[in-house]
Amino acid sequence: MFTGIIEGLGTLKRINKGRGVTMQIQADFDLTGVKLGDSIAVSGTCLTATRLDGSTFDVDVSPETISRSILNWAKPGDRVNLEKALTFASRLDGHLVQGHVDGIATVASVKADANAILYSFEAPSSLTYYMVEKGSVAIDGISLTINQRSDTGFSVSIIPHTAKITTIGLRKPGDRVNIETDIIGKYVEHFLSATRGEADKNSQMPGINMALLAKNGFL
């Protein structure tokens, strides 16, 4: 589990492709405290450190991760966002991020907006369905607040500090980014769908609907 508060950048040093994909990444910061088998979020993808050498670590990347994330187009020299796994003693400054990328969005535009930078993204409805205005989204592992959303995209405001210390400041129109939608919304939708399904099979079980919420004072 992560928070979406990036600890620093790293550089992709090497990619090996055989029966699977392995990558070597050099962090710009000290990895003291990280041990073999620990999780590290690499631009929003939760990967396991399989080798450690100072500030350099290796990871295995599964076919599922390759198919769902921008790591499919990764190349040596790429800069990546890095975050070590959350501990129970850590402050939760961003939001709960699993490092399980849901899909990919594309930068549509980048515009100055007073002291911020407004990034607009094109995204499939399968991603935007789980987004709400002023809700949270992880973009390349960065915890950000959604300004606006539609069925085909969304926008976020980036302050200069975030642009400076993460890869979002390097993104330009046409670039792809990893997207992880809010875990809470996904679970709520799943539970409600399951409840509706059970209600269809068992007429004695009313399930959750607008009428039930209104009857019990939630609307």
From TrEMBL:
Q: Does the keyword Repeat apply?
A: yes
Instruction: Write down the SUPFAM superfamilies for this protein, in alphabetical order.
Output: Riboflavin synthase domain-like
Annotated membrane-spanning segments are none
Question: In its keyword annotation, does this UniProt entry include Repeat?
Answer: yes
Q: Which domain of life is it from?
A: Bacteria
EC numbers, comma separated: 2.5.1.9
Instruction: Tell me which UniProt keywords the record has, alphabetically.
Output: Repeat, Riboflavin biosynthesis, Transferase
Concerning InterPro entries, the annotation shows: ATP_synth_asu-like_sf, Lumazine-bd, Lumazine-bd_dom, Riboflavin_synthase-like_b-brl
| Residue stretches making up the Lumazine-binding domain | 1-95, 96-192
Q: Pathway it belongs to?
A: Cofactor biosynthesis; riboflavin biosynthesis; riboflavin from 2-hydroxy-3-oxobutyl phosphate and 5-amino-6-(D-ribitylamino)uracil: step 2/2
Single GO MF annotation: riboflavin synthase activity
- PROSITE patterns membership: LUMAZINE_BIND
Top EC class of this enzyme: transferase
> Among the record's GO biological process terms, what is one?
riboflavin biosynthetic process
What is the role of the protein in this entry? Catalyzes the dismutation of two molecules of 6,7-dimethyl-8-ribityllumazine, resulting in the formation of riboflavin and 5-amino-6-(D-ribitylamino)uracil.
> Which proteins does it associate with, and in what oligomeric form?
Homotrimer.
Q: Spell out the protein name for this chain.
A: Riboflavin synthase
